[in-house]
Amino acid sequence: MHTETWIERTIIDQLTTHDRRYKHDYGGVEQTTDDLIAACAKLDLITTGDEPELPPIDQFLARDADLEPEVETALETLREKNLIERIGEEERLGPPFERGDFGTTAIWEPTVEGRAEARAIREAYSAEVEALADSHDTESDEFKTG
Predict the structure, then answer these.
(1) On the CB side of 65, how many CA atoms lie within 13 Å of its CA?
(2) I need a surface site. Which of 26, 64, 82, 136 has the fewest CB within 10 A?
(3) What is d(CA 76, CA 34) in angstroms, rounded to the nearest whole number?
(4) How far is 31 from 123, CA to CA, in rounded Å?
(5) Per-domain residue ranges for the chain?
(6) How far, in Å, CA of 18 to CA of 28, rounded?
(7) Is the pLDDT reported for residue 22 higher than 70?
């Protein structure tokens, strides 16, 4: 695998996950930088939180701000490795009912190499899950009776 961090793997996953009900040849999805930052923040909060419920919106916004530089660095790294490409920009939406120029956000999509990386990531995670499941099938001396 060419990805090294959980953020890079999350970005590749976000750009290559699609609605599996459609059987056509699939090339990936387009996501904005803002969408990818939000996805990383959500995953980080869900996996590090102690509560089974989603955290409040203010925690999401704070985590978004914290992760933004890391996600932007990861996007540039993935672009340099030719796993994703920048295909354009779109205007950033501001808060509802507020006028103004909120800048733009880049639009990204996976390359052929990026889709291959996604397959490698999914295969590696599948192997890890199978190994973990197999390790729990064996009885431990700790739980044996008699």
Answers:
(1) 5
(2) 136
(3) 14
(4) 23
(5) 6-18+28-135
(6) 7
(7) no
pTM of the model: 0.73
Residue range 17-40: average pLDDT?
74
List phi, psi (to 5°) of 119: -60, -45
| pLDDT tens per residue across span 53-89 | 777 788 878 888 889 999 999 999 999 999 999 999 9
Give the mean pLDDT of the chain.
81
Question: In 18-111, where does DSSP find H-type helix?
Answer: 33-48, 57-80
Among 81, 74, 9, CA closest to 17 = 9
β pairing state of 84-91 and 31-32? unpaired
Q: Classify domain 6-18+28-135 by CATH architecture.
A: Orthogonal Bundle (1.10)
Backbone conformation region of residue 76, classed left if phi is above 0, alpha if psi is from -120 to 50, else beta: alpha
Per-residue pLDDT at 137: 63
Cβ contact 36:13 at 8 Å:
no
